[in-house]
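Exercise 7.
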Amino acid sequence: MPVLGSSPSPHHELALRDYGHSHGSHAHDHFQVLIGLDGVLEIEVEGRGAGIGVGEAQVVAPGDRHDFSARKHGSLCLVLDTTQPAWARCAERAPPDSPQLHALARYLAQCMRQPQASALALQHGPALLLEAWSPAPASADSRRRRIDWPLLADWARARWHAPLSVADLADVACLSPSQFAQRCRDEQGVSAMHWLRSLRLAHARELRLGGMSVAETARRTGYRSPSALTAALRR
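Solution. The predicted structure, written as tokens, is:
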């Protein structure tokens, strides 16, 4: 499976994880989808407690601190770490009581025990989990003008030297600013300016990981100073 990264295209990582009785607590910058296969995992997300039993599921949104521990016999979960923004809608509502989702999770767990023989299933597993959790939108949505997000991201990355606004992005997408802003919230899970800032920061991370100096990275990605870039990376 591809490793998680900072490019605009979604990245996914499937894993089978055994949770013991010991307590854990952390937050991360991607969505985490947990589906119970055995035992019960006690989890508290931003102060809201829940238990993930067999066939139950939970989506943890980026930045949400969560504490977790299993009951005395432990817990086995199928875990999907993903940057796919469509999971934002799933995080906002209760998990579905879906036999298809639970059966799919069990099947993918079996595939992970024989990954070489199940490469195709594992490749498409993240998309199938999303489809099983959140059925396709109504046909009215399919008639909307499609936004090519990777192409729009490439357009923005080539223009960090100029101040970019929601209106600029909307113009490229052939939508009004208000339509584009709503579509960004619906499809990317964040505001248009948050999406743009995240894209710029991701580009800066790529350049720094490639060995480019802070000053040159700041110049290429449009930060007003090297210190502004350093502060953004620390945040």
